[in-house]
């Protein structure tokens, strides 16, 4: 047992994980800009719960980014390489959006705030496509342990960006006379620093043309275009291999029924958490917590808890498998939602909030690590960014198309937060039932290019 645990820990001894961690920070940080900070700004300026909840529609961008993800896999920027080129250019776009947001006010520019938030989401969602492709490309095709470790490091990085850096705006809002608009300038500076870190990362050494040839030899029909073919035929073949093959290959490899089962589970798993997350800042403020309380517990404490449990979650997945990691996390997820219902009854107790954040951090970390590793293993290396974006977008869909109505639900319950959190706990149950029904398929996930037995 000790040797197995030591071997799992040694999996993390890889310098590539530092770049994966930094990219995780860059991936999580924009969610602060269009999530927590924007919600707090709108709440402080008097917008209703329903209006704040509807601003969550901006996150729909993350649910549909698979539509343009094939371009990230096939179009190579003129500088920095396939993955780094896309990541860096999107980060510069996010910096520009922060500068634009700092010039707006909710009283006069509400539409433009939503529009800039939308552009921020587009740049961020596109950055995520390239970041996920980078992570998958860095790990050997048959290295399941490495994929679990990379997923846990990426999750720790994401929460460092979302929780660690995300605490800064709330401390500034309470301890200084900075307006929320001015805070966006600082967010832009921090994103610029992350863009510099991107320049220092090493581009994965992937021969994508060779991968296409391997797929073509297996009958997927995505091979290179004949140099003697006409221009029209070349364009047709390029469009097919870029826009159609990544999706058709996924369904052909798994079979339509199993592929749809995977996608349905991914969609269902985090709907309850998404409902809770969208309204969490509004809840904290209404129940009586200060901006400093939110920064200390919801951001900083949650950050450290999530980092610890992300790394432990990676070790657990290496030792016991992804299915058990998902099941444990799902059960704990429902339990942590019920703790928020208790806070709604007791009022702003910081000790209870701390305990709830620890439990919530555990569930969020383990569920994310297991899900990221699971989705990553389902991806074909030739279409790593595209296929990951397809599946990850379904996970985000619950946070957008469904969870954007969370404010309306709270209003319909006449502000009964306890009942709302109980409902979010119940939402977890269908996904756990479905997870159990496909458990054998999850346990037997193989690398896409590995020979089938």
UniProtKB/TrEMBL annotation:
Q: State the InterPro entries in the record.
A: AmpG_permease/AT-1, MFS, MFS_trans_sf
Q: Which UniProt keywords apply?
A: Membrane, Transmembrane, Transmembrane helix, Transport
Where is the major localization of this protein?
membrane
**Recorded GO terms, molecular function?**
transmembrane transporter activity
Where found in the cell? Membrane
Superkingdom of origin organism: Bacteria
Instruction: Note one Pfam family from the annotation.
Output: MFS_1
Membrane topology of the entry = Multi-pass membrane protein
GO cellular component terms, semicolon-separated: membrane
What transmembrane ranges does the database entry give? Answer: 20-42, 54-73, 85-104, 110-131, 152-172, 178-201, 258-281, 301-318, 325-346, 352-378, 390-410, 416-438
| The name this protein goes by in its record | MFS transporter
What taxonomic lineage is listed for the species of origin?
Bacteria, Pseudomonadati, Pseudomonadota, Gammaproteobacteria, Alteromonadales
